[in-house]
């Protein structure tokens, strides 16, 4: 067995360049997975296999198959009876084994970065019987790494920033590369970083790829962007190692290390005197090479100023000069002040020894413009008495041209504010006068607008409101405050209060109203008591009033004021006499008519309304009577024959009407429809049809008619329809001749009806109707 092991070592010695362990006597045990000896004698157990692990270099470039190793067992006597079988990863494709010798070869070039180790299984069989001589045993083929992969960075370009003026060694960014080679074996994956471009401003840590500042005082205002090229090289940076590069774009971020500065320290601004308060007249700007909030500036006027102010435009960082007080070219034309600018945000690291503010002088020149006239007051308040006559003086308005030329001004009233044309203004001196008399009770205030216009430039106008207050004059007499409904009970006692009255006055005296109440003439029934608070009581002087004697009393009440001149009026108080209960509650009063009422009473309105209704009823009745028509009866007779008349309420069509009756039935009675009724109209009442006896052939029409007459005479239920017209057919030898009136040449007045009595009992009724009729009756 020892000789077999020595033989296996000789075979593996050929593979030593791919072995991971040096071929030394002390490492033989490790090669086969045995522990190192500590001086003791080791007892080896018997085993049939004499191999453990194979190593194979990647990226083999030879033309033949790459030899991996040899499998051998002590049961192989060299007689060819042993067969080696290989299974597992890549067996039969990547790896081939010689069945007789046990030599293993790789058929393709292998890459460790794709797969670093393959696990296979080997067993030994009897070639003749396929009997398994050695059990299935696992072994590994480890691919030995070579330096065939260059380092790679994750990005082709990196972006980083660092504050300007940073100290040396300030970390900027860290960039790392990766190497696909085996990091556990050799230096194939050991990387070293170096800087190829970007010196002397930056440096890189060779081990971890950290980029740092290498130059102090780097100023963003001098140079802002830097391109740094970093290289990563394997094999620990030795000659022959592979390398990869990346670019790092480094930007210096701004810090507030630069103060604002005026490019020029004297500014001249021109402003027109008509500029409104708050309006801008100019801009000034200081320069700050910083950016962002580090470049934000704040402007101010040193010591402040009464007329001007300066604010900062946050977008453009300019100082805007605005007006605080109206400019006047005529009073002052030139101004001068000092402006200070400073940074809003300061960095404490850079304020030492540097003044972060600057100053400039601003000179403002005011230009003259043609200004509109200016009134001496705005607004005007004028008082005038209401008794002022038309053409009287009210007041004066005055305006002047503020320009140096002091051009003349004319005045006018805006008539939109004086639609009633109550006032007028003198166009030269501005005197306001009245055109009409004023009435304070109509309007206490008049608000008009007076316009001042330059004579030489009508576009230059100014308006001023003029408020004219109309002062009161005592020109109105007091009167009752309301309409009083006063009554006195018949059972009233003397000295009883029946009404409290008050007064109103449209005038407004300065000391307030004071009314005096009195009753003109002596009144034996009532008296008035002035309460001296602008009210008065009406009190009875006696008791026992009677409605029969007097139903109504008229009391003249005189009301006077205390203003000058004194105004007074007499108002009439109507007192009704009413019946009251014991408590003094009114129960009934005589009807009254208010003679002093401006309108109609309720009773008068009701009477008028009743008259109108009666007239309308008479008109409607008269119209109905005129439209009513009296209907005359068809037959005037002493006998009532209405039960034999059926009205169809229809007018026949005359002799040309062939639809109402069919005369063919008379000529051919056999074809008559038993149930056939009138086709043109439905009678008001229907009777049951009565079948008649058939007529024999060759029967004379006269016999036929006589038979029908006899049947109908004996039938009490058969009404005489208007079918009498169907009997107009004349048979031969008729004694009655024609019944038609069309063949009669005589008028109705010449007609004689005596012959009807000779026609038999059938025409008795007809004879009575016509023979006994008055000759003057209309048919």
TrEMBL record:
This is Cadherin-10. Keywords: Calcium, Cell adhesion, Cell membrane, Cleavage on pair of basic residues, Glycoprotein, Membrane, Metal-binding, Repeat, Signal, Transmembrane, Transmembrane helix. It comes from the Eukaryota. The chain crosses the membrane at residues 604-625. GO terms for biological process: adherens junction organization; calcium-dependent cell-cell adhesion via plasma membrane cell adhesion molecules; cell migration; cell morphogenesis; cell-cell adhesion mediated by cadherin; cell-cell junction assembly; homophilic cell adhesion via plasma membrane adhesion molecules; morphogenesis of an epithelium. The lineage of its organism: Eukaryota, Metazoa, Chordata, Craniata, Vertebrata. It holds the Pfam family Cadherin. It is found in: Cell membrane. InterPro entries: Cadherin, Cadherin-like_dom, Cadherin-like_sf, Cadherin_CS, Cadherin_Y-type_LIR, Catenin-bd_sf. GO terms for cellular component: adherens junction; catenin complex.
């Amino acid at each position: 067995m020892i000789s077999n092991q020595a033989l296996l070592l000789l075979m593996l010695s050929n593979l030593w360049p791919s072995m991971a362990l040096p071929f030394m006597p002390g490492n033989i045990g490790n090669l086969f997975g045995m522990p190192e000896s500590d001086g003791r004698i080791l007892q080896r157990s018997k085993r049939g296999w004499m191999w453990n692990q194979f190593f194979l270099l990647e990226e083999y470039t030879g033309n033949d198959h790459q030899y991996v190793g040899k499998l051998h067992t002590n049961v192989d006597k060299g007689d060819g009876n042993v067969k080696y079988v290989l299974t597992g990863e890549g067996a039969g494709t990547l790896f081939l084994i010689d069945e007789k010798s046990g030599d293993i070869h790789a058929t393709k070039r292998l890459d460790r970065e794709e797969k670093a180790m393959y696990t296979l299984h080997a067993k030994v069989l009897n070639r003749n019987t396929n009997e398994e001589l050695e059990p299935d045993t696992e072994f590994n083929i480890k691919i030995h790494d070579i330096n065939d992969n260059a380092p790679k960075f994750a990005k082709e370009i990196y972006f980083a920033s660092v504050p300007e003026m940073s100290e040396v060694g300030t970390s900027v960014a860290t960039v790392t590369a990766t190497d696909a080679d085996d990091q556990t074996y050799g230096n194939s994956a050991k990387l070293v970083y170096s800087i190829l471009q970007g010196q002397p401003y930056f440096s890189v840590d060779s081990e971890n790829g950290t980029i740092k500042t290498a130059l102090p005082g780097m100023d963003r205002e001098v140079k802002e962007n830097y391109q740094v090229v970093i290289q990563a090289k394997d094999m620990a940076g030795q000659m022959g190692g592979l390398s990869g590069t990346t670019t790092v774009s480094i930007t210096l971020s701004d810090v507030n290390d630069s103060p604002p500065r005026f490019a020029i320290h004297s500014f001249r601004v021109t402003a027109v005197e008509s500029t409104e308060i708050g309006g801008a007249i100019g801009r000034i700007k200081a320069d700050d090479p910083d950016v962002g909030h580090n470049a934000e500036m704040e402007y101010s006027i040193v010591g402040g100023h009464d007329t001007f102010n300066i604010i900062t435009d946050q977008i453009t960082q300019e100082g805007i000069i605005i007006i605080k007080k109206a400019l006047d070219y005529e009073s002052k034309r030139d101004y001068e002040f000092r402006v200070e600018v400073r940074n809003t945000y300061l960095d404490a690291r850079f304020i030492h020894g540097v003044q972060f503010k600057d100053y400039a002088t601003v000179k403002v020149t005011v230009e003259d413009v043609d200004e509109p006239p200016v009134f001496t007051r705005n607004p005007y308040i004028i008082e005038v008495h209401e008794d002022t006559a038309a053409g009287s003086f009210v007041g004066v308005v005055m305006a002047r041209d503020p320009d140096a030329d002091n051009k003349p001004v004319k005045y006018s009233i805006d008539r939109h504010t004086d639609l009633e044309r109550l006032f007028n203004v003198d166009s030269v001196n501005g005197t306001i006068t009245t055109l009409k008399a004023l009435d304070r009770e109509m309007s206490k205030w008049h608000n008009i607008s007076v316009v001042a216009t330059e004579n030489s430039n009508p576009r230059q106008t100014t308006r001023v409101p003029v408020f004219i207050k109309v002062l009161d004059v005592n020109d109105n007499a007091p009167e009752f405050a309301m309409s009083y409904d006063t009554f006195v009970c018949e059972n009233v006692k003397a000295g009883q209060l029946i009404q409290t009255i008050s007064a109103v006055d449209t005038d407004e005296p300065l000391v307030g109203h004071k009314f005096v109440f009195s009753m003109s003439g002596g009144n034996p029934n009532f008296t008035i008591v002035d309460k001296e608070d602008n009210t008065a009581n009406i009190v009875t002087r006696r008791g026992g009033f009677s409605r029969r004697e007097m139903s109504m009393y008229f009391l003249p009440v005189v009301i006077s004021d205390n203003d000058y001149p004194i105004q007074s009026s007499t108002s009439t108080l109507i007192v009704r006499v009413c019946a009251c209960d014991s408590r003094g509650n009114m129960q009934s009063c005589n009807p009254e008519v208010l003679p002093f009422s401006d309108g109609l009473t309720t009773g008068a309105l009701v009477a008028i309304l009743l008259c109108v209704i009666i007239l309308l009823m008479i008109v409607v009745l008269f119209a109905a009577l005129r439209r009513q028509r009296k209907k005359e009866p068809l037959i005037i007779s002493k006998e009532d024959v209405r039960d034999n008349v059926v009205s169809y309420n229809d007018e026949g069509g005359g002799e040309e009407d062939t639809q109402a009756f069919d005369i063919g039935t008379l000529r051919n009675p056999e074809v008559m429809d038993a149930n056939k009724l009138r086709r043109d109209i439905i009678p008001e009442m229907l009777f049951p049809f009565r079948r008649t006896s058939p007529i024999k052939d060759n029967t004379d029409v006269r016999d036929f008619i006589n038979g029908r007459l006899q049947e109908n005479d004996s039938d009490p239920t058969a009404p005489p329809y208007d079918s009498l017209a169907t009997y107009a057919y004349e048979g031969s030898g008729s004694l009655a001749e024609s019944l038609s009136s069309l063949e009669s040449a005589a008028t109705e007045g010449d007609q004689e009806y005596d012959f009807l009595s000779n026609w038999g009992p059938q025409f008795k009724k007809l004879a009575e109707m016509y023979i006994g009729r008055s000759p003057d009756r209309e048919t």
